[in-house]
Amino acid sequence: MPLCSACGGNTFIPRVVGEKIQTESDPPFAQPDEVASILENIERDLENYEAEICRIRKEKGRLEHYAAQLRSLSSPFRKIPNEILRQILDDCCDMNSFRAVDLKRRLPTQTAHALTSKPAMVVSSVCSRWRQTALSMPAIWSRISLYWDVHGEDHNWEYEDIEIVFPLSCFLIRSQQHPMTLNLDLEARPFILIPTRGLHLHLLLTRLFEQIICWQSLSYRCEYYSFEEFLNHSSIPSASFPVLRRLCFAGSVMEEDLTPFTTTAPNLQMLDLPDTPVPHSSYPNSHQVDIQDVFNKFPNLFSLGLTESTLYSNGVSPVTIACSSKLEMLTIHHREGWKDPSDSSAVFPLLRLPSLKVLHLVTDKSESTDSDIYRLWDDQSWSNLEPFVVFVQQSALQLTAFSIQGLSISDANLVKILVLLPTLQDLTVDDSGIPQKCSSISSEFIEGLHTYRTSSLRPQEACIVPRLRSLRLLNVAAPMFKDWLVVEMVKSRWIPAKVNAVGTSAFKVDCLRVFTMTFVKRWEENPGHSYSLLAPIERNGMMIVIQISGKTLGV
Predict the structure, then answer these.
(1) Which of 80, 158, 439, 549 is most buried by its number of CB atoms within 10 A?
(2) pTM reported for the whole predicted model
């Protein structure tokens, strides 16, 4: 708006004075045509102003985008060496998921999830540097998980699901024959009935089976066909698994299911059978998996996963005991808080593993609602505790790592187990899904871990697990906790010199390096105040993590 050069006032003089508009009489000077002309000019000016505002906004947006690009040039992330960037991308791309679902039952959210479930494709789309780095890493393209839920009789096989087949082919090409991690979860039969050729695998499965010599890790689940039947329909003349290291069969497995791997997978080192109960004693014409037979057929096996229960116990001792001098890692799968009153017993009496170093007790969630299965939360007891203790004693275990996840064990029984493991270095107790009254992570348990202070659970003066270096207590359900006991226990195990003298006796205790404790929830306003006393220890080298409801507290 122009201003007067002499006085600085407004020089704008409207053609229609405001005072005249406010008069009750008709303005004699303003004719209708003149007023219409003025309004038309105003409308034209307003349109010009709007257009100018839009132009300025677009220009502002372009400048902001250009400024962001310039700032990215000076971003510290650009200074990260390619070696570190490769490690970051490798950690982010743990698995690329493909879902084959019938178009009639496909949800709109599944289309949006198609890209985000393939992290290798995502990171390769960020910028040219990331794309070049991702394409030079065949490992991130060779981790594939396929979920199949398309019934052959309901699917139009002329349409081969290009949106799934094409990306999968790109992944296989970019994997460059790198050892592959493959998860197959088949809810339906992925076969095509071709009149002239018979029953054949769908194109997706065919592409994957063409890379069979590259399979390094295989996880398989299918309720309809055994893996051997898939091999028979895969058009592969002789299946061989020269680089296969890990094999996992979900669901019930028979002895013949392992037959394709006995002579064709000479390097198999890890076998996981989480849902397959092994026979406790001999049974006529049984096709169940025999543990000793597994040890004999796979001599290089050093890791084994089994379910906790067995079959055909009949209240008698096991006929044969499976023994392996090479097995170093054992995972026992326990059904979440359930006990089957049918004729079954624990798998522990069947095993003698003197070389075992790592033991995991894992609870698998159960979806069963049968009336013959009932929960055991109220009695706070693990029914197979005594067989487990006998197994530890008879095998003379020298464990270095022990973890318990979602298993209802009292604090007293947990201390009883730890007393038998003096060589333990890494302990993890995860109370996921366990009610507070059944939790083993209590104040008494924490006090029992103190190096020199006796407690109700540990009346003797000798320290339990003296070689402990890493302690993780996860998902503690107690809303109130004696945090000062935790602080005192951690302080007692912070021994950089690895030697601690008490009274007239001296005993060696390793220095605790890692301590993690996570709470589901707490009632106190500031429970993290007590853990601030651990700040000097953290500054001197111990890794300490305290979390409440997913939020990390500053030590």
Answers:
(1) 439
(2) 0.77
